[in-house]
Structures are given as structure tokens and as C-alpha cells.
């Protein structure tokens, strides 16, 4: 497997942990899910400076060597894996996990259970499949580097997820909205816009 694909698989394997949000919703309901996502968001915000600010993690490791030296090697392994999978724009900016958790928090708070589960699940699985299928099998490339194969993988996975929850029509339209958001990487970040695009479109469909 080429290094580029290996890195993408590692990144998307971590990205798929986002499925804990809809799983938590199914198992424990809305209120506990809001608490779970809010706590995750706070944790991410607290840890983010250690990833971004140069030298900050080194100072922490110096202290760890004095207090718990056996932990230093573990921290360095984690840092290595993070640097391997982070995008270039994330090295000095906000990470995808921050955008994902904010979007999930908004969606779980403002939208129904079906819409929340559908939009977060599709954005998570669809984004992962689009990247992996696109890098592995993408033959028909667009000017932005995306592939027709990757976009189709996103769209089809979305239909499969949404249809049992909200019907085929909603699945087709909602999946198309997510595919477009993922394709154009709508600002501020596609990990934010994917979820919101699907949720808003599905909500509008319920009003018709």
C-alpha cells in the first residue's frame, strides 16, 4: 500500500471515532450525548495548544521526565502519529476534531434524533470512504483533486445510511447535499460543513 494511502487510512480510522456520537445517541439519548460531545469539545480545546504551539509539548515532556519518565515515550509516539495524519493547514491552525465536535454539538442540540444520527453518521462514513476510495481507485479527477469515484462513494454511503431513517427521497437529497459540501470543502472546514449541510437539508425536507 502506498504511503499516501496508508496515511489517509490512518487519518480516516481516527475520523471514524466520530461514530461514537450517533452510537451514544442511540444508546443513551439526547441529554447524555450533549454532555458527552461538550466534554469532548472542552478536552480538545484544552489539548489543542500542545499540538499547535511549538515548544509547549517539549516543556511538558521535560517535566514528565522528572515526574513520570516512562510516559515520555508514549507521548512521543502519539505526537508522531498526529504529525503523520494532520493536514498542512492544521499544523498551525484549528484541527478537524474541533470543527467536528462543534458541528455535532450544534446538530444534537437543534435537530431531531433522526436528523442528528443521519447527518453525523453520513458525514463521518462518507468523508472516510470518499478519501480512501478516491485515493485508491480514483481515475476521473476534477481540478480540485477530488475524484468522481470518491464522490460516488460518499453519495452511495449516504443513501444507505439515511434511507432506513428518513426514506429514499430524503436519502437522495441529503446525500447529495453532503457530497457537494465535501466536494467543495465548504468553509470554515468540511468536517463542520458536511454535517450541517446534511442536517439543514434534511430538516427543510421535513417541513415540505
TrEMBL record:
Keywords: Membrane, Transmembrane, Transmembrane helix. The chain crosses the membrane at residues 12-28, 34-53, 93-111, 117-134, 154-180. GO terms for molecular function: ATP-dependent diacylglycerol kinase activity. The keyword Cell inner membrane does not apply. This is SEC59/DGK1/VTE5 family protein. The lineage of its organism: Archaea, Methanobacteriati, Methanobacteriota, Thermococci, Thermococcales.
Amino acid at each position: 500500500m502506498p504511503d499516501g494511502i496508508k496515511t489517509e487510512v490512518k487519518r480516516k480510522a481516527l475520523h471514524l471515532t466520530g461514530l461514537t456520537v450517533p452510537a451514544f445517541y442511540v444508546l443513551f439519548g439526547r441529554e447524555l450525548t450533549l454532555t458527552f460531545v461538550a466534554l469532548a469539545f472542552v478536552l480538545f480545546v484544552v489539548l489543542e495548544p500542545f499540538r499547535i504551539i511549538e515548544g509547549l509539548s517539549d516543556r511538558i515532556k521535560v517535566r514528565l521526565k522528572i515526574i513520570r519518565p516512562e510516559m515520555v515515550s508514549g507521548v512521543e509516539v502519539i505526537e508522531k502519529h498526529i504529525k503523520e495524519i494532520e493536514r498542512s493547514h492544521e499544523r498551525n491552525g484549528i484541527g478537524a476534531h474541533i470543527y467536528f465536535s462543534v458541528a455535532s454539538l450544534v446538530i444534537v442540540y437543534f435537530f431531531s434524533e433522526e436528523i442528528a444520527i443521519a447527518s453525523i453518521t453520513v458525514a463521518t462514513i462518507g468523508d472516510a470512504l470518499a478519501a480512501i476510495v478516491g485515493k485508491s481507485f480514483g481515475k476521473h479527477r476534477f481540478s480540485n483533486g477530488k475524484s468522481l469515484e470518491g464522490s460516488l462513494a460518499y453519495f452511495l454511503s449516504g443513501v444507505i445510511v439515511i434511507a432506513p431513517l428518513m426514506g429514499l427521497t430524503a436519502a437522495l437529497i441529503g446525500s447529495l447535499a453532503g457530497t457537494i459540501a465535501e466536494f467543495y470543502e465548504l468553509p470554515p472546514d468540511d468536517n463542520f460543513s458536511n454535517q450541517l449541510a446534511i442536517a439543514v437539508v434534511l430538516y427543510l425536507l421535513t417541513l415540505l
